[in-house]
Amino acid sequence: MAQTAICKITGKKFIISDQDIEFYNKLNVPLPTLCPEERARRRFAFRNERNLYTNKSAISEQPLLSNLHPDLNLKVYSPEEWWSDQWDGVNFEEDYDFNKPFFEQFTELQKEIPMVSLHITNNENCPFANYVGESKNCYMIFGSVYSEDCYYGSPYYCKQCIDTLLTRNSELCYECITCEHCYHCFYCQDCVNSQDIIYCYDCRRCSNCIGCAGLRNQKYCIFNKQYSQQDYEELKKKLDLSYSKNHKQIIEEFNKVKLNIPHRDMVSVNVEDCSGNYLYESKNTQNSFDSKRCHDCSYLAQTIDMKDCYDCNYTEENELCLDYIGYYKNNRCLYSQMLFGSNDIYYSAYCMSSKNLFGCIGLQHKEYCILNKQYKKEEYNELVPRIIEHMKQTCEFGEFFPISVSPYCYNETVAQEYFPLSKEEAIQRGYKWRNKDQSKYQKQIYDIPPNIHDVPDSITTEI
Asked: Are 191 and 184 in contact (CB under 8 A)?
């Protein structure tokens, strides 16, 4: 039966449902001791997306871009070096010490293992990107997959999209938020299967609309008013979006239109028995957000193609994963981060194409390893239950890595974006904090013309 638990951080009550209990029993793990929000905060503190620094390769000593600050004194490799055969994670093996807590041993191993400077996988010409996979010719995008010729934002399966947030399967879009299957759309939010729309909100299967909200299967509308094609083109020309000042007037009228339409309690498409927001093509997925094609899951955010997964973020194509954040294509990975193409993993990070690992970091194509030490199958299967029992005694098993284990400071991570704290609050909780590095920037000396048509190509060489 459902249980009421007390979050050991906030002291607040939270419900562990019958479905939750069934899932935890299936994986043979303890029930959670933190509420869903604090569990998410803990995972988010291990992801630094957009705070990038100039660091130095520990192999070539050449400068490189990294999300790891140089004052951490960690071994940092470029992605090419990290993925190469120039090093092997098993060379950093440690024997498990039953006289020490597990997290202490994991932290010691983490200080020795080379860290990758940026999290990019199977990309082409995407040097200024982080947490990006299977993409081509992209610049300054973060947390994205399968995108091409995109800049600034977090596109998914997109082409030629600029300044977008969680926009999927779209092309030639600009300044769009949580849009899906859109083409040539500008300044839109929550729009689906639409094209040639500008300043629109919650419009579906629409085309050639400006300043509209809540429309379905409409075209040639301005501020939700229907026009003929000829009248629409004439009014659009009068609005003249090439002038920046005209945008302000359009936004003011557009906001009035948005306030006068019914708003959905949950943005979703083709879902069954789901709760949360921004869910697409999913079934029996609870308390989840910004997720697509997820089945029998709970407590997800920014995920795609998940089955039987709980407490997962920023990941795709996983099954039977719990308290996991990072890469994709995993099966039965628990309390781990940044794994790719792996299965049957506990408490590990940055491991690729591996299986049967416990407490490992930076391994590729390995199996039956503990703290990066290679064991025979029989030895591994005998030792892992002993480690789990030891971790239960130290109250560690069933908990994701503590925030103190993260190499990042709290305010560098997405935890600060979703669960913001002041410097004083973070330090009081025992979290690390980084003051912003002092930088000198050149001042803008070029006056941008008010009309986009008057801007010459030479602006790219101006300040």
From this structure: no
Please state, in angstroms and rounded to a whole number, the distance separating the CA atoms of residues 157 and 175.
16
Q: Which tokens go with 239?
A: 């609005």
CA diameter of the chain: 80
The strand pair at 13-16 and 3-6 is best described as antiparallel
* pLDDT, position 368: 98
Complete DSSP assignment for 258-317: HHTS---SS-EES-BS--EEEEES-EEEESEEEEEEEEEEEEEEEEEEEES-EEEEEEEE
Contacts of 378 (CB under 8 A, 6+ apart): none
Pair of tokens at residue 238: 């009068």
> How many Å is the Cα radius of gyration of the chain?
24
- 185, containing H or E segment: none
User: 37 in helix, strand or coil?
Assistant: helix
Q: For residue 368, what is the DSSP state?
A: E
Q: 44-78: per-residue pLDDT in tens?
A: 999 999 999 999 999 999 999 999 999 998 899 99
Q: At what angle do helices 377-393 and 102-112 cross, to 10 degrees?
A: 120
pTM: 0.91
Of 374, 338, 406, 196, nearest to 356 (Cα)? 374
Strand 343-346 versus strand 322-325 pairing type:
unpaired
Q: Which of 26, 450, 436 is nearest to 240 (CA)?
A: 450
